[in-house]
Amino acid sequence: MNHRIKTLSNYIHHYEKSIQDPEAFWGEIASIFQWKKPWKKILSWNFEGPDIKWFDGAQLNITENIFERLLPTHAEKTAILWEPNNPNDKSQKITYQELFHLTCQFSNVLESHGVKKGDRVIIYMPMIPEAAIAMLACARVGAIHSVVFAGFSATALADRINDCKAKMVLTADGNYRGAKNIPVKAVVDEALEKAPSVKKVIVCQRTGETVIMIPDRDIWWHDVMEGQSNQHAAVSMDAEDSLFILYTSGSTGKPKGVVHSTAGYMVYTYYSFLNVFQYNPTDIYWCTADIGWITGHSYIIYGPLLAGATSVMFEGVPTYPHPGRFWEIIDKFKINQFYTAPTAIRALQAYGLDPITPYSLASLTVIGSVGEPINEEAWHWYHTNIGKGKCPLVDTWWQTETGGIMISPLAGITPNKPAHASLPLPGIQPVIVDAEGNELKGNNVEGNLCIAFPWPSIIRTTYGDHKRCKETYFSTYPGMYFTGDGAKRDHDGYFRILGRVDDVINVSGHRMGTAEVENAINEHPKVIESAVVGYPHDIKGQGIYAFVICESSDDIAKLSEEIKDTVRKIIGPIAKPDVVQIVPGLPKTRSGKIMRRILRKVASQDLSNMGDTSTLLNPEVVEEIIKGAQKN
Ligand code: PRX
Fold first, then answer.
1. What are the tens digits of pLDDT across the range 508-532?
2. What is the pLDDT of residues 415-453, one digit of tens each?
């Protein structure tokens, strides 16, 4: 079987094979990789534990499958094509050979500073090539990397370091983001006051600003790289050894560390990348995500590099120094596959077509979307004006926990249907269930989206708390992985993702737990209680609306700003509420539960049918909240 799907009937054939005999299907794909020791069993699993093992007994190193496996044919090919924040600065081309040498050098650095197999290393870095090198070097020495998005606050960073008891932090002096220069090293310094497990910090010089270097703890990247050998023998990892931890928000307060394993993740990110984007050997591929998110892990670094692709890495933001920046880069590098988020599309759509006209987008063959449901208007705008009506648009549905793309058109193969993630990839068995967990078979059904069978890159555990993994994903509907999303299967059998059905909101493609934001709000000394809900937002998809009870309500404007600022400090700017409404009370049931349904309606200004409020403990409060919202 050639594992590159080329036609729709080919897809159907692959899909059927993957369902009838998953082990044979994945075994054949896995056989292209370099294994230090072969597997004993391709798959053993139960969802009760959960206990899922792919390629058990095998040993490998994922970076050997990027470098040693590919260098004979790819040494001179560009692996990473880096574009700086400022278009007047020089871009960088790093070949597979160069990336290999840099990764080996940095692997030697890590080992010489005491990093061993299984140690946790935090990466809190800008979008610079060193961030990719840092991830790959961790993987090469067997350390578990945990990349923390460099926009998170010191408190959020400290929480993540403490949760996984990381030994080392890799960072930079500053982070150029549009017109801003964010002092990331200073954030690390603040975080480490509350995170004692970290013994060493390696600082990459990017912006050249002055930073405080703490003796015996902080060292410069360029100093320690000097004189290091560019050869390094990769550490042997068991197939199920953890490759990385990535923290993500859920319904409950604290973000959880999603753990991915080595072999299954490797096989699945490679396979899904190749097939969804239909990557050809001379193509230039660009995913605009940040490596702080799963999209950056799977589809800037691991998937593309395992497939021998040229992957573009962009330091900046879509609108700096002008709103045509994305289109300028597509033209500059003659990008073939372009993968971004609906929120970016909507933000750029707002500037009209003028920013696009100076640039040629003729190189594009595939355009992609990820992170949140893409509304039909944005879909058509993207398809018409960026894809020029000729590029297939892959609306890829997946999650941090799934490791790779689960439901998506395969570019040019699956017929496009606006706003539909469409069909599952081979190996993926989605089911739609009703509230009681009964499977809704057939077409034209809507309910909660579950996955009935393991795929190679499924979450293995939540770091340090396996019970939480079970409760969050495998207990709601026993025997199935529950995604937290609602979905519809239409009359053609195509899936449309409807969004989260739990207390998670999706802000600009980023997941935010409402409880997490509430906890941050409640840190403000004047706050008594708060409730956070999502509401439709033109650019962000969903905005954050906070209803807050305060001790005093004088100078409401000032108090609202202070509350927003508290959240910014505790979590980061991405979690800052768009609206804070000070309220006299929150609608509660007799058992004391906040009726979020009502708050969601108020936040969405959908006051037509408030439903039954008579069972509330305090129905009078609803009127007051509505009145307050209208003044807001
Ligand atoms: O609600 C779904 C939404 O994003 C959630 C996963 O967020 P995260 O783990 O941060 O990963 C984002 C990048 C993979 C999902 O539960 N989501 C993601 N992609 C789509 C989507 N919703 C609709 N359509 C998509 N294409």
1. 989 999 999 999 999 999 999 999 9
2. 999 999 999 999 999 999 999 999 999 999 999 999 999
Instruction: Annotate 324-359 with DSSP letters as a single string.
Output: THHHHHHHHHT-SEEEE-HHHHHHHHTT-STTTTTS
Start-to-end CA distance of the chain, whole Å, equals 61
Residue 514 Cα to ligand 1 midpoint, Å, equals 16
Whole-number Å distance between alpha carbons of 206 and 185: 11
In three-state secondary structure terms, 297 is: helix
- Residue 396's nearest CA partner among 541, 265, 490, 276 is 276
pLDDT score at 614: 79
Which of 303, 163, 169, 184 has the alpha carbon at shortest distance from 245?
Answer: 163
The string of pLDDT tens digits covering residues 531-581 is 999 999 999 999 999 999 999 777 889 999 999 999 999 999 999 999 999
Check pocket membership of 629 for ligand 1, CB cut-off 6 A: no
Is-contact 161 172, C-beta < 8 A? no
Tell me the CA–centroid distance for residue 484 and ligand 1, in Å. 10
According to CATH, the topology of domain 504-631 is GMP Synthetase; Chain A, domain 3 (3.30.300)
| Over residues 349-377, mean pLDDT | 97
- Output the CA 499–ligand 1 centroid distance in Å: 8
Give 1's pLDDT tier (boundaries 50, 70, 90). Answer: low
Provide the pLDDT for residue 250. Answer: 81
Q: How far apart are the C-alpha atoms of 371 and 142, rounded to whole Å?
A: 29
Per-residue pLDDT at 629: 87
Which residue ranges make up each domain of the chain?
A: 8-317+396-474, 504-631
3-class state of residue 439 by DSSP: strand
Give 607's pLDDT tier (boundaries 50, 70, 90): confident
CATH number of 8-317+396-474: 3.40.50.12780
Write out pLDDT tens, residues 42-98.
999 999 999 999 999 999 999 999 999 999 999 999 999 999 999 999 999 999 999
599 pLDDT more than 80: yes
Question: Considering only 8-12, 425-429, 605-609, which range has the smallest mean pLDDT?
Answer: 605-609
Instruction: Work out which ligand 1 atom sits closest to the CA atom of 395.
Output: 26
Take atom 7 of ligand 1 and give the residue whose Cα is closest.
399
Task: Tell me the C-alpha distance between 544 and 535, whole Å.
Answer: 7
Question: What is the model's pTM?
Answer: 0.96
- Flag whether pLDDT at 590 surpasses 90: no
Distance 398 CA to ligand 1 centre (A): 5
Contact 262, 416 (CB under 8 A): no
Write the CA distances from 400 to 81, 212, 248, 315, 476, integer angstroms. 25, 34, 7, 22, 19
Instruction: Identify the burial level of 402 via C-beta atoms within 10 angstroms of its C-beta, where 0-12 means exposed, 13-18 middle and 19 or more buried.
Output: buried
Indicate if ligand 1 lies below 6 Å from the C-beta of 400: yes
Give the start-end residues of each E strand in 140-275: 144-147, 168-172, 175-177, 180-182, 200-204, 218-220, 237-238, 242-248, 256-261
Domain 8-317+396-474 shares a fold with domain 504-631? no
Cβ–ligand 1 distance for 421 under 6 Å, the answer yes
Check: CB of residue 175 under 8 Å from CB of residue 139. Answer: no
CB 409 within 8 A of CB 393: yes
Element (H, E) at 93: strand 92-95
